[in-house]
Design a protein that fits this description.
Largest sheet: none
Structural class: mainly alpha
Helix content: 40-55%
């Protein structure tokens, strides 16, 4: 959720030749992974519930701990675990709910409402990012040509995420109830402040039918929790120290996720529609042997480029899909051009691009 505008670098960029689809890669991706499409409920539920349980347990330790070192260690553990749990919102937008009954409810109960990141903030939004004619265009809610913007846009892009927990408490604790009684405010809240999007021009459509009923129910729960949290702090029932630790952990989750978003793509498209192969090459895999991506790009997000080839593949199958494709495709295949070693090199690559004259 953002309304920040990032400046483009001045001058006209040289036009780039369009990238044609690599039929061999697309065919191999489809044929070699047909048996991997079914999500495994035990894996989803076990991973998700363990992440949430560890996250909240560590948060409790961080709040109750006396020594600062223990608070910091527990806070980091809590952040990583809750970040992993929150990352399942991405899976919700792709998985068929009939194959994972109750998972949307479970996500909202254990992560969505407590963290004020309910499922509806991504459902109906992320699918637009994968639309063949929308990716990388002004109609893509999750795309900004960051590599073509001013150098200061990158640190601003990351730092603004630190304010996300405050913005979410305000959105659900203040704007939600006000939007019920203030004419016209509801439309603004839904259109502009109800999506995990980075494109400031994106506007959501008002939900309808069953989607609206589900949205209103979940949003009511978020509003009640946010208002209760505000009341607990104001009355002193929740100490400022405990509240500060909670907000610090949530802020760290948002910043790490924004850093991951920064390196999820190369952000080099200037608004034209792209082929599937071009979308793949503008996206990023950070496969093994790198180990840290398992922490900052959890739940399959380290295979983000592969995910754009096979968006319906469950997260637990992406590693096997990568191994199969790597074992079959020729080394000249564009498949390998989306593989990178880690975050530092990717950040440096994008930063260098912002400094090029245009």
């Amino acid at each position: 959720m953002t309304t920040t505008t990032f400046a483009r670098t001045s001058g006209a960029a040289a036009p780039r030749a369009p990238i044609a689809d690599d039929r061999a890669m697309l065919k191999a991706a489809a044929e070699l992974t047909r048996d991997l499409n079914a999500p495994r409920p035990a894996v989803y539920w076990g991973d998700f519930l363990a992440s949430a349980a560890l996250g909240y347990a560590a948060l409790g330790v961080a709040i109750a701990a006396g020594p600062l070192w223990l608070t910091l260690i527990a806070g980091v553990v809590s952040m990583l675990a809750l970040y992993r749990g929150m990352s399942f919102i991405h899976e919700l937008t792709h998985v068929k709910h009939a194959s994972l009954p109750g998972f949307r409810i479970g996500y909202n109960v254990f992560i969505g409402v407590p963290m004020l990141v309910p499922s509806f903030m991504y459902e109906g939004v992320h699918n637009l990012h994968h639309a063949r004619t929308r990716y990388g265009t002004s109609d893509d809610p999750e795309y900004l040509p960051l590599a073509l913007m001013k150098p200061w846009s990158l640190p601003l892009f990351v730092l603004v995420a630190a304010l996300a927990p405050v913005a979410l408490v305000f959105r659900y604790g203040i704007l939600s109830p006000l939007s019920v009684i203030v004419p016209g405010l509801r439309k603004v809240v839904v259109e502009r402040y109800s999506a995990l999007a980075i494109n400031p021009q994106f506007r959501r459509r008002m939900p309808e039918g069953e989607a609206a009923k589900q949205w209103n129910l979940i949003e009511t729960a978020c509003a009640l929790w946010a208002m209760s949290l505000i009341a607990l702090v104001v009355t002193g029932a929740l100490s400022l120290r405990a509240f500060a630790i909670m907000m610090a952990v949530a802020s760290a989750v948002a910043v790490v996720n924004q850093l991951r978003t920064l390196v999820a793509h190369l952000w080099e498209n200037e608004g034209e529609a792209m082929t599937v192969t071009a979308q793949y090459l503008d996206s990023v895999n950070v496969p093994p042997p790198s180990t840290l991506p398992a922490l900052w790009a959890p739940v399959g997000l380290r295979y983000h480029a592969l995910h754009h080839l096979l968006p319906g593949l469950p997260y637990h199958a992406l590693g096997e899909a990568h191994r199969r494709l790597s074992g079959v495709l020729d080394k000249s295949s564009p498949y390998y051009k989306a593989n990178y070693a880690g975050m530092p090199g990717l950040v440096a690559k994008i930063a260098r691009s912002t400094m090029l004259p245009r």
